[in-house]
Amino acid sequence: MTSYLSRRTQSVNVGADYSDESSLTCGVPQGSVLGPSEYTMYAEEIDDVVQRDKLRHHMYADDIQILATMRPALADVTSKKAVIERCVASINNICASRRLVSNLDKTEVIWFGTSTNLRRIEGHMAIKLGASDISPSVTVRDLGVVFDTKLDFHVHTHQSDCIDRFLPSASDPPASSYTTTSVKTASCVRTHFIAH
């Protein structure tokens, strides 16, 4: 591991010209096999922060998703948003102490729920990250899957090249025989961190 992290240099090339090499004192090679694992070790304290706030999360390399569920009552939404915002602020502080910053251009917020539940909280769905308000998205892409606010995958299936495999055929049971699961209101904040 030491040889992977020490005595590393970088140079820039434009066409056939190369700059002088300069020593690197931090970071790992982009696209390297060990990069995601090393980043996870570097950011392991994030797991403790999210668990402290009783939220759920998913993390891979520089991608963090924070998930929260709540009833669609405005008081519950306001309370849970405050927890999410505090959690993200704590994560930003941890990352800043490690010379990482949140990439607001890649930060997304999406709320999942029925149309009725989402209408109840309309106007209260933006998440404040530092001085920025992140307005909710209607869709987000995660590992190639497009999620929409209703979690019905309508947008995803219409963007898929192999949609015919998923459409019902004449031999399938009628649509009325399918069951759907109702979903509580939920929020997902997804952000990327970049070296600073």
Q: What series of H and E elements makes up the topology?
A: HEEEEHHEEHEHEEEEEHE
| N/C terminus separation | 23 Å
What class would the helix/strand composition place it in?
alpha+beta
What is the mean predicted local confidence, pLDDT? 75
User: What's the count of strands?
Assistant: 13
The backbone outline, from C-alpha atoms, is elongated
The major β-sheet equals: 5 strands, mixed
State the helicity in percent bands: 25-40%
Q: Unreliable segments (pLDDT under 50, ≥5 consecutive)?
A: 161-185, 192-196
The number of helical elements comes to: 6
How would you characterize this protein structure?
By secondary structure, the chain is of the alpha+beta class. Helix content is 29%, strand content 31%. The protein has helices at 2-5, 35-42, 45-52, 74-97, 115-120, 154-159; strands spanning 9-10, 13-14, 17-18, 22-23, 56-60, 63-70, 100-112, 127-129, 132-134, 136-137, 139-142, 145-148, 185-195. The strands form five sheets. Strands 5-6-13-7-10 form a five-stranded mixed beta sheet, covered by helices on one side. Strand 2 (13-14) and strand 3 form a beta hairpin. Helix 3 runs antiparallel to helix 4 (74-97). The two termini are 23 Å apart. Residues 161-185 and 192-196 have low confidence and may be disordered.
